[in-house]
Amino acid sequence: MRFIAAAITFAAVFYGNVSAQAENQIFIIVNDPDGYGVDRCLATGAPCGTAVATAYCRSREFTQATSFRRVEREEITGAIPVGAKTEEFVAIECSR
Q: Is the pLDDT at 90 greater than 70, yes or no?
């Protein structure tokens, strides 16, 4: 009987922790100047970029932006967007 109680307790703790872990994903976007200064807010990690980064995450069905920063072309290990005319990219990390 103790074994069954221990197994149920272990399963509850294990599955509770798995579901509580947040899902994070990092998106790399082109940081083209838009005339509104948003590009500077994102690239520098300034507080003014928080709303933009969060809106971007929400448009991708995530809850919030956990971080955002400028990244160099050399840091990008995947494909760079076709037609990227700039050397400026921003990484936005989103969380569910």
A: yes
